[in-house]
Write a structure and sequence with these properties.
With 549 residues, the protein is α/β, with parallel strands linked by helices. It has 19 helices and 18 strands. Strand 13 (222-232), helix 6 and strand 14 form a beta-alpha-beta unit. Helix 15 (407-432) packs across helix 19.
């Protein structure tokens, strides 16, 4: 198997990471959180009633699946680049046997149409897997897919929620606006906004979906008071951002962040993004400050092109995060500061967390746009990395003096450890606010790949979390892979149930404390809790990041 095929299979559906009209009324506010109760008796097999009407799902052996369920109105026409509006009602029983559209995104490179679903702007839907039998209400797990906020879908095969739902949770996967449709600012759009909610439309979609879940998940047997967000890569980064938003309070109660690699990211201001958006609009032929002209652009005109993406690789960040017109921004409403800065000031929402990384999260193997589009995203070239260390460079390099490795390997190790310290800091700051946290390091390699890949690459944990080996690798997993997957799922579900990942039969996972640094090492063998990073290195990176003050 060649390198390209190996990486595509290992990462499956989630290899992307980040670095990073007049007179029309504003979209109405979402209704208050009044949950739709599940009826005592279900008169129609596989049919539930939500606020917009009845849904018919697909009964499986132990789970019923509902696909393409709208949580907001289609963000098209006059609703493009506006906060999400409430979902439209329908008559009769809506067929929920097929997924909704993927959100509009470039159909390029390794990211091309993983889900097999057409991509359009009309995409604000959720997929739901509900256990057929539960004792009372079930905990809810909500998946935020990866993709650098530019690619991806909750319908990618790697994110099939059936296996987790069999363990007694209601599993929800969200689609949200991406790229230029989800993160875009322009003076004309700001001027017409009555409430100042502009720019970060993708994050507004997350909030709208979570509001919808609060009002409707009881109809599927889920507990709206026990919602856990989990996500990988930029899905994990998004959870961290939601923790900084007062508007998200009460919408979720626990979080699992799998490889959040850009917790420290200097975001542009709204004004800066307006200037970038204006330049982008001009490149598409819109020179006036008329929002109607912007909304008249076709989907294809708004989408990024190969030349746009190639241009991003010429920047220092070497990432989709260096595409200025598709970045989140400090809008003064939802986002007011960098994630780490909010945590440093203890202003984050306080909930239990699981946070972790993979040993080779910054693995790079396919350097061209044609092959992988934008990999690596977060890995800075050696000269940039060492320049970023500034006056701390000599001190940090001395901590690795015993390692006889080329500078390229040292550079990667330093960056991975720096990210690892940010993850630890995030959890420890939550502990200081009274919420327990747990840190892991994942290094299981699926059978059949151990010869070509020695350590777990970015997103390699996803098929273990979902139990989707067949969808990702095209074959049934051997018992050794199933055992790792079983343990990981049990930790995740136990945490979703109670806020504590420990249960009988599992290796004890200690709550995290930065001074002790006990993390769970998840490998192909039994997990083990141990100190993964010397205290000297933790202190040095905290000093580098300005977090010891």
């Amino acid at each position: 198997m060649n390198t390209r095929a190996i990486i595509r299979a290992m990462v499956g559906a989630s290899i992307a990471i980040a670095h990073f009209s007049p007179g029309c009324a504003s979209a109405p506010e979402l209704p208050s959180r009044q949950p739709v109760s599940k009826p005592a008796t279900e008169p129609k097999p596989g049919v539930v009633t939500v606020e917009s009407g009845e849904l018919r799902g697909t009964p499986l052996e132990e789970v019923t699946r509902y696909l393409g369920v709208p949580y907001a109105a289609p963000p098209v026409g006059e609703l493009r680049w506006r906060p999400p509006a409430p979902p439209l009602k329908w008559q009769g029983v809506r067929d929920a046997s097929k997924p909704g559209y993927d959100c509009a995104q470039p159909n390029l490179g390794i990211f091309a149409n993983f889900s097999g679903v057409e991509a359009r702007e009309d995409c604000l839907t959720v997929n739901i897997w509900a256990p057929n039998r539960t004792a009372g209400t079930a905990p809810v797990m909500v998946w935020l897919h990866p993709g650098a906020l530019n690619f991806g879908s909750g319908s990618w095969p790697a994110f099939d929620g059936e296996q987790l739902a069999r363990r007694g949770v209601v599993l929800v996967a969200i689609n949200y606006r991406l790229g230029q449709f989800g993160f875009f600012a322009h003076p004309a759009l700001t001027k017409e906004s009555a409430d100042g909610l502009v720019g970060n439309y993708g994050f507004m979609d997350h909030l709208a979906a979570l509001e919808w879940i609060q009002r409707n998940i009881a109809a599927f047997g889920g507990d709206p008071a026990n919602v856990t967000l989990f996500g990988a890569s930029d899905g994990a980064n998004t959870i961290a951002r939601l923790l900084t938003m007062p508007a998200a309070k009460g919408l979720f109660h626990k979080g699992i962040l799998q490889s959040p690699l850009t917790l420290r990211q200097a975001l542009p201001t709204l004004a800066e993004q307006e200037a970038v958006g204006k330049k982008f609009a001009e490149s598409r032929g819109v020179t006036s400050d008329d929002p109607a002209a912007l909304r008249a652009l076709s989907m294809e005109q708004v989408l990024l092109t190969t030349s746009d993406l190639e241009g991003a690789l010429k920047g220092e960040a070497h990432s989709l995060g260096s595409l200025p017109s598709t970045r989140p921004m400090i809008d003064g409403k939802l986002i007011t500061a960098d994630v780490i800065d909010v945590f440093r000031e203890q202003k984050q929402l306080a909930i239990p967390l699981i946070v972790g990384t993979n040993v080779k999260d910054l693995y790079q193997a396919l350097p061209t746009v044609a092959d992988v589009l934008v990999l690596p995203f977060a890995l800075n070239p050696e000269p940039i990395l060492f320049a970023q260390l500034g006056p701390h460079r000599e001190r940090i390099e001395k901590l690795y003096s015993s390692a006889s490795a080329p500078s390229s390997v040292l550079s990667e190790t330093i960056q991975i450890d720096r990210i690892g310290v940010m993850v630890r800091y995030l959890v420890d700051q939550m502990r200081r606010k009274g919420a327990a946290g747990y840190v892991y390091r994942f290094d299981a390699v699926a059978s059949g790949f151990s010869g070509a890949i020695e350590h777990a690459t970015h997103a390699a944990e996803i098929p273990y979390v979902f139990g989707t080996f067949e969808q990702v690798f095209g074959r049934k997993p051997p018992p050794s892979d199933r055992e790792v997957s079983d343990r990981l799922q049990r930790y995740w579900v136990a945490f979703a149930r109670s806020g504590n990942p420990n249960e009988a039969g599992l290796v004890e996972w200690p709550a995290y404390d930065l001074t002790v640094d006990q993390t769970l090492q998840i490998t192909n063998e039994l997990p083990v809790a141990l100190r993964a990073l010397e205290q000297e290195k933790i202190v040095a990176y905290l000093d580098l990041l300005g977090l010891n003050k």
